Amino acid sequence: MTPASQLVTAAAWSLHPQLAKDTAPVGELALSRLLAINAADYPWLVLVPRRAELSEIADLGNDALLLMREIALVSRVLKEVTQCDKLNIAAIGNVVPQLHVHIVARRKTDPLWPKPVWGAAPPRAGEREAFARFIASIHGKLGLAEENNGASFNQ
């Protein structure tokens, strides 16, 4: 059961403006909003727990276990959809302080392999239609409700 204090925190939650600018919605999971970054070379998802004013996974308390389950679920789906060689998963938060977890599909043939994608040049945007198909594929594999479809995006 979620404590009353966390219900209030969830009600006050809003997406950080930088995340809103850099991503497109995929859908809503039990705890987190799932977003996608249009990166042609790196299929890239971001989980953002809907809890206000948190910057660390440890700040989630008991909900940290739910976040771990969502990370595992989204990771499995991303790996299945992309057939990638490796997944990079990180909650860095040095630039955007709102708690969020990056899940990036990597291939041994990608431009930065084996280096991390963080701190490199901004990702090169892919074709709009390919990005929409990627979002739809992730959305479908997760079995998200149609009203939970993140089909509209601004990238």
User: What characterizes the major β-sheet?
Assistant: 5 strands, antiparallel
Low-confidence stretches: 4-8, 151-155
Kindly provide the radius of gyration, computed on alpha-carbon positions and rounded to a whole number of angstroms.
15 Å
CATH H-level homologous superfamily name = HIT-like
What is the CATH topology classification name? HIT family, subunit A
Structural notes for this entry:
Helix 3 crosses helix 4. The model is unreliable at 4-8 and 151-155 (pLDDT under 50). This protein is an alpha+beta fold. It has a single domain (4-115, 123-146), classed as HIT-like (HIT family, subunit A). It has helices spanning 4-11, 17-22, 63-82, 128-142; strands spanning 24-28, 32-37, 44-49, 86-90, 101-106. The chain contains four helices and five strands; from the N terminus they run H-H-E-E-E-H-E-E-H. Strands 1-2-3-5-4 form a five-stranded antiparallel sheet. Helices cover 32% and strands 18% of the residues. The longest helix has 20 residues, at 63-82.
Layout of secondary structure:
Layout: H1 4-11, H2 17-22, E1 24-28, E2 32-37, E3 44-49, H3 63-82, E4 86-90, E5 101-106, H4 128-142
Antiparallel strand pairs: 1-2, 2-3, 3-5, 4-5
Write a concise synopsis of the structure shown.
The chain has 155 residues and is α+β, with helices and mostly antiparallel strands.
Q: What are the main properties of this structure?
A:
5-stranded antiparallel β-sheet; HIT family, subunit A; alpha+beta; 155 residues; 32% helix; 4 helices; globular
